[in-house]
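Standup notes
- HV: blocked on the assembly model, inputs below
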Amino acid sequence: MADTRLTEALERYEAVIGLEIHTEITVTQTKMFCGCPVAFGGEPNTRTCPTCLGHPGALPVPNEEAIAWTVLAGLATACTIAPWSQFHRKNYFYPDMPANYQISQFEPPFCADGRLDIELTENADERLDVATAANCTPLDEADRAGGYRATIGITRLHLEEDTGKMNHIGGADGRIAGATHSLVDFNRAGTPLMELVTEPDIRTPEEARAFARKLRLIWLSLGVSDCNMEEGSMRVDANISIRPRGVREFGTKTELKNMNSFKGIHDGLAYEIIRQAAVLDEGGTVVQETRHWDASAKVTSAMRSKETADDYRYFPEPDTVPFEFSSAYVDAIAARLPELPDARRERITDTFGLSMHDAGVLAVDTEMLAFFEETVAAAGVEVEGIEVKGVAQAVINLMLNDLAAHLNAEDVTLAACRITPAHIAELVVLVNEDTISSKQAKEVFAEMAASGELPTAIVEARGLKQVSDTGELEAIVDTLIAAHEDKVAEYRAGKTGLLGFFVGQVMRETGGQANPKVVNEILAAKLA
Amino acid sequence: MSLTQKEVAHYAFLARIELDEAATAALTEDINALLVHLKHIGELDLDGVEPMTHATALVNVTRSDERRDSLPPNLVFKNAPAHEGNAFLVPRIGSGTEGGA
Ligand SMILES: [Zn+2]
């Protein structure tokens, strides 16, 4: 459920949100325009040279790999690749950029006019117009009741160089206010940086979070970046305005920075919607400004008044020459595209008959997917159709419930855990063949998680086998019927709820090891 | 069009270039001579001529993704007015400004 203050604000005002997402290309060996290594942290200014320190006369030369990765990223987000493009200088004075300009792109960027589909299942109720919005489709009831899919336009994806890192000394929380001086580290300066800008198609904080999550998964599946939000290799900023519902023109927007986690993206935007709604409710006007999200205080505060694009005095970078991307060049990069999360999910759904939700979990986690596929194979399922579906479903249930709970409780990774695909496969087969009941399977799971023993050995040692022998169970049922003639009569007179009593008695007689399915069948026949 | 000495001083300020009055006067004269040249170009019929951004016809000049040595620390700070340990030291940043591009 969404925050009630947010819901209340969204009932009267529609939020219009656009994202600006910077991602460092961390897969290249070297920086964008020089041969200094790309890495995180380390002793300050040890990975610098005249180019990334902005010395006059140094000649920046573009890294061909960084450009190819950006084109790949553009193709993965359905962008059109510009046949002709170039770098621009973006002029501004700030100590994190010693050349006094950043080499960036203006028009045309390498990639433009893309889109990304996101699926909303959490906090889907933040969006009030799913039924009527042009970019929304409700998800199938069977899949996720109440959820929806939204298509978000991507305006552009361009390549630039990252700035240096400032450390403000003497102020509170390392912020500039109250600082006496600042220290600058240019190790990060010149790292290839992709900037993706969305259309203002996003309407709720949850959509913004879903977009960032989805984009991160795509970048990770390409391998272009480690997308570490805490270390700043993926940074999400947002433009947000609100307008009364039914009004077409946009309100005044604020720019929100420092939302360095997925929770920060959602909570920062939710706060900003509630704040702007309160300003408008009081008859005030929203001030166009950049605001800083403070995750611990849970508030946004003003940073500086927004500069307009003109202030940057963009002009073509004279030190680099333009680019012409032939279709052969773009095709060769397209051939490098790996299976993306959506396609992978579809393949898993088709192959194993899993729900979109379960398949979605596997699609974004390579380690889980490998474990799952190995387990299904080890369970010996080669038949297509129903058989594979049943086993695959049993495997995924064990993985997402028992196994996930175990990993969580023990705080271990899948790789470090004692449980292997062989364990899960044996357990699934034991249940599938009615050797043990699903209740007994829980017991076996706990034991194998603790000892690492294989399920068959545990079942053997503990004598856990389920009694499915019809003759043995029939004899028990006959004895019961003879001993409880009164209850049998009541049952036959229509008190069918007594079936549970008989099942319970059989279970007691067998020490809980009777196969409930067989017991039910026998009872149904004998009591009729 | 021509620029006044005051305008040139303003642009020098924007570009963080320190100019004394004599230099400003000399530059104003030079810039105005350039502007006369641009005015001549402006008088030509340039309909249908694509703006050019570079004096060469080169395209796709890149380098391979290979490491080269970074600078040793003693050279990194050689031209810096101040540094503290391994970091460049800059004075307090003007009021109301926070965060880069
Ligand atoms: Zn460098």
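- HV (later): unblocked. Chain A touches chain B through 64 residues (CB under 8 Å). The first strand of chain A starts at residue 13 and ends at 24.
- Next: hand off to the docking folks.
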